[in-house]
């Protein structure tokens, strides 16, 4: 009834070099990449960022169509934002003007930057989620959260909760279908009517799901207790993340990419030529 | 005109994608009004898919399905499906998970109200249904979530019966119930059958099929493997073996007797009472019975 | 021996006690069935033995180990409990992760985990499903994984709280067969709370609870010789016992020692093939 890994994010099973990397490296690199996107200050910098992205896409051995699917849902938002930049930014040569609106060369420049940033950030996130199963992402996040323990954040408990959430998502989706069918059988029409009517019709769906979830939580807590779970006690770990040589290589690659990007900034300031 | 008719029905999941999978293949069947049909078969054999089509929750990929006057095929619109659901009641497995209203009475009235019945009429239908399920009237104003598991189940079933369906589908109605509650529930279902409701019951317990059903439909990998009376089915060792079905305990016992050389007049006693009756007759005839 | 002395328990939101001054001795290394109508106190007893509830009065001792808050860690290691709903006790995202959950709780060193997981999955016949997700398993398979999770910790006592009631006949049959095998191979003590007459007939010892008190107890074979008394308590009987009662009502007395289907067949053949 569905693979949680595939349903949730955009994880696509595969065996590429990227698929095999430690999720901590991937999560960190994704985050870092987004940071350096904002450090690019000229067309050379953006070109370099696109080259890096292209290399990663090639390494993921997944079809470009997949990455387009990551952008598609946000297409209109991107278009809207780009249009705003185009019509409202000022600076440089004016091509057309009408009241508050103006299309200027400055506008073109700004909107090109916005468009580039959207594409780069969305696509690098897709690279991350397409090559990393959700459970591994959760493990990586748990690893990064460890220092928060010193701030008395219950990291271990959050990790267990994350695992339980992931485990129950397919089960709850099945239950939702089941309750919907039961209520449809009793004459409820979920797709007709005004927004308000449809919202009210959610009651026979949401209440059983809530009640069911509470009951489930209670039984689960009892079972966990019977199995020796103590949220405050130390626990050993079955799934341990292992660092490999490829992960070191990836971090070196990341460092190099950053250095080159910084170099492009210097070029615009005329220091290297 | 028979109550229910399936004509060369196919159901394919995700039909236009590369992940298409056959769930029901070339299924045809006629069921008479007021009949009681037990539906058996391995998990994944298509029993639930078939019933979902019968209740208008799924639409056949090919073929046609008729319930009373309503005909459904893959071009059926929402109105036709709604009309279908008006006449068909479906008690899902563990139906108590569908309860949601503030009071028991309101929950049971929900179905009839959705059908367009007046509130006064809905209340009457609800009260009658609750009484039929032998629920005490003092629970009517209580929250359904305060009740015991067995009571919640009965309230859920009352909610379906209050809609006065002419066809009633039940999916393992006794799952998780203790033996006494199971017996009570099935007796009630049989009462409905006697009063003229067409019943379809999915079950894994052959004792239930043997005791109550006029016919048994055996499903195997999405196809109709057999449609016959319980007596015919449980005499057919080859078919039972192929479909992976164990006969009811009373039949198995009679077969054990037979393998020791002891034949009964009816070699396929469908209930333990019938078995006991036959044994009594033989023992009293046979001389050494201590009475 | 599991020694239960004058055990009483009352849930805070109920007026009547769930268990009322119950004194019992349950044999170790045997299969004990605890049966009774809904509300007789069966599940409550199971949870008290496992230390999940604290008695209002009375004591429970598992051999020499006293069931109380101080010994919780030992209790959790020595007793495994399989609950009724296969979904609501399955914690891991895969079968292996679920078995590992218990190991992690008991702080089993990482190096020992894989071997224990493999061994316990093999013992329950689920070794090919180690990477399967729960949504793809049947109820019976999930219960077997629950059992594997318990076996991996190495307990002495397994308690089943209506663990078969939500399963289909095949799932039920497979689970019971597995338990019988485990008792024989590993000297386990099994306590099963149940309605199922087949489960009852597999047990060595039976306790019947009625409204929080012990109504009957003893060797299962002895208790089954008096099916009328069990029927009076509204309990479901195994097939042979049901048949005995029906024959009695029709004027045929089957001697008490012909307790199961096979022996009844023998008796009937004796009577009729002479």
Helix and strand composition category of chain B: alpha/beta
- Per DSSP, the total helix count of chain B is 11
What is the gyration radius of chain C calculated from CA atoms? 20 Å
The second-level CATH architecture of chain C is: 3-Layer(aba) Sandwich
- Overall pLDDT of chain C: 91
Number of beta strands of chain B? 10
User: Helical residue percent of chain C?
Assistant: 40-55%
Please identify which CATH superfamily of chain C we are dealing with: P-loop containing nucleotide triphosphate hydrolases
Q: Count all strands of chain C and give the number.
A: 10
Give the proportion of residues in helices of chain B.
Answer: 40-55%
**In terms of quaternary structure, what is this?**
heterotrimer
Q: Compute the separation of the termini of chain B in Å.
A: 52 Å
Sheet with the most strands: spatial strand order of chain B? 6-7-8-3-9-10
Which series of helices and strands of chain C comes N to C?
A: EEEHEEHEHHHEHEHEEHHHH
Strand content of chain B: 15-25%
Order of helices and strands of chain B: EEEHEEHEHHHEHEHEEHHHH
Radius of gyration of chain B: 21 Å
Layout of secondary structure:
The complex is a heterotrimer of chains A (273), B (291) and C (274).
Chain A: H1 4-8, H2 23-37, H3 43-60, H4 64-71, H5 75-88, E1 94-98, E2 101-104, H6 105-131, H7 134-145, H8 155-185, H9 195-201, H10 203-226, H11 245-268
Antiparallel strand pairs in A: 1-2
Helix pairs in contact in A: 2-6, 2-7, 2-11, 3-6, 3-11, 4-6, 5-6, 7-8, 8-10
Chain B: E1 4-13, E2 21-31, E3 36-41, H1 47-54, E4 62-67, E5 70-72, H2 78-87, E6 88-91, H3 104-114, H4 119-132, H5 149-161, E7 167-171, H6 179-194, E8 198-202, H7 206-212, E9 215-220, E10 223-228, H8 230-235, H9 237-243, H10 249-259, H11 272-285
Parallel strand pairs in B: 3-8, 3-9, 6-7, 7-8
Antiparallel strand pairs in B: 1-2, 1-4, 4-5, 9-10
Helix pairs in contact in B: 3-4, 3-5, 4-5
Chain C: E1 2-9, E2 19-26, E3 31-35, H1 42-49, E4 57-62, E5 65-66, H2 72-78, E6 79-82, H3 95-105, H4 110-123, H5 139-151, E7 157-161, H6 169-186, E8 189-193, H7 197-202, E9 205-210, E10 213-219, H8 220-224, H9 227-232, H10 239-249, H11 261-272
Helix pairs in contact in C: 3-4, 3-5, 4-5, 5-6
